[in-house]
Amino acid sequence: MDLQKAIQELYSERERIDEVIRSLEQFLSTNGTGLPRRRRGRKSMGAEERQVVSERMRSYWAQRRNGKAAAAATS
To answer: CB within 8 A of 30, min separation 6: which ones?
Structure first.
């Protein structure tokens, strides 16, 4: 057997295997649907949205404090 021919066959087989691996990795990265994966977890908020949430929570906790104070006064 010619060693040069054997080496050439191994290189071509490695290229074919690398291509299959790339296609499988791409398939896995798209969740098997062909669409890119969506990032999970919290979405990021802009400064304006954070300010709105901050004001809403400040109002919420003020109402909770006032409700506890009223309940403690009646007890």
So the answer is: 36, 37
Cα separation, 34 vs 38, whole angstroms:
12
- Cα dihedral angle (54, 60, 66, 67), rounded to 10 degrees? -160
Rounded CA gap, 71 and 19, in Å? 70
Task: With beta carbons less than 8 A apart as the criterion, state whether 30 and 38 touch.
Answer: no
Question: pLDDT class for 27, splitting at 50, 70, 90?
Answer: confident
Q: Using alpha carbons only, how large is the chain's radius of gyration in Å? A: 31
Structure tokens at 45: 């908020």
